Each structure stands twice: as C-alpha cells, then as structure tokens.
Amino acid sequence: GPSIFLTELHDIACRLIEQSVDGAPGLTIAGWADAPDDGAENPLAMLTTGVPWPADPLGARRDGTERGAALVRASLRSRGEPALFDMGESGDSDPIDDDPQVRDWANDLAVLLAERAGAFGSEIEVTMPQHLSVSQLVELDKDED
After folding, report:
1. What is the 3-state secondary structure (H, E, C) of the chain?
2. Tens digits of per-residue pLDDT, 70-111?
3. How far apart are CA 98 and CA 82, in angstroms?
4. Side-chain half-sphere of 46: how many Cα atoms within 13 Å?
5. CB neighbours of 10 closer than 8 A, spacing ≥ 6?
6. Most exposed residue of 30, 57, 83, 94, measured as fewest CB within 10 angstroms of its CB?
7. Distance, first Cα to last Cα, the chain
8. Rounded to whole angstroms, what are the CA distances from 46 to 10, 43, 49?
9. Is the peptide bond preceding residue 129 cis, with omega within 30 degrees of 0?
10. Is the pTM of this model over 0.70?
C-alpha cells in the first residue's frame, strides 16, 4: 500500500479541498487506487528488465571492435613488430619486460598517474546524519557545492 507520508499528504489535500470556499483551485487528486490485496504482486515489478552493470561502453560495437583489434595485432605480428598490448597467444609474455622503450613509457605513465592522483585524490571524511527531513533534502538539492 501507500507509504505513511503519501497517505498523510492525501489526507491533507482532501481536507483542504473540502474546507476551501472556492474548491482549492489548482489542488486536485487525479486518482487514488485502493490498497492492494494481501500478497498481491506489484504490477510495475513485472515491467522491469535487467540491465548489465557496469554498462559496456562499446555495446553492440564490441564484436566489430575486437575483430578490428585482432586484425591490427595480426598485421603487426606478420611484420615481426610487437604490439604494445599484445600479450601473445599464451598471455604469459609481458611487453614491458621485452622492450626498453615500452618500459620507459610505462614508467612515465606511472609517474603521471601518481601525480594526477595526488592532485585529485584529496579525500574528505564527512559524517552523514542518521535522518534527513524533506526540508533538508530540498536544501541539499539547492546547494550546488
């Protein structure tokens, strides 16, 4: 059934409409469904569908993108050139160990990522209240910070 909060709002709206001299224009109750039978299923629950999470950023393009990447890797291998992220057939080889230039890039990348994490990684611990009133939620919504 409806929540206590919704029931209270309904009761208040009904009283305002009944007590108003002019019929409380602008305040109407479009519909109020009867409470469901005990054990009845929520009809909206049957309309929901499952969605994989996290969402695949490639979506339907994944197969084509992976085929294209495989073609690029195969082309590089056929020319005898290692691909930067080519883990080989077994997945055991590490291109960072094999190529000094790749190792340098990996070191540069690690330094840049650490620098970025230091710049943006400041954490602030905030104690959340146990309860928020509707008014406090409205104020939080208005606060852009």
Report:
1. CCCHHHHHHHHHHHHHHHHCCCCCCCCCCCCCCCCCCCCCCCCCCCCCCCCCCCCCCCHHHHHHHHHHHHHHHHHHHHCCCCCCCCCCCCCCCCHHHHCHHHHHHHHHHHHHHHHHHHHHCCCCCCCCCCCCCHHHHHHHHHCCC
2. 888 888 888 877 666 655 555 555 555 677 888 888 888 888
3. 10
4. 4
5. 2, 29, 32
6. 30
7. 37
8. 27, 6, 8
9. no
10. no
Please give the Cα distance from 118 to 112 (Å, whole number).
10
Percent of the chain scoring above 70 in pLDDT: 84
Whole-number Å distance between alpha carbons of 137 and 144: 13
Structure confidence at residue 68 (pLDDT) = 92
Burial class (CB in 10 A: 0-12, 13-18, 19+), 24: middle
Residue with tokens 């930067």: 84
Tokens found for residue 46: 């049957």
Distance CA 29, CA 13 (A): 8
The structure tokens listed for 89 are 């057939």
Q: How many CB atoms lie within 10 A of CB 82?
A: 15
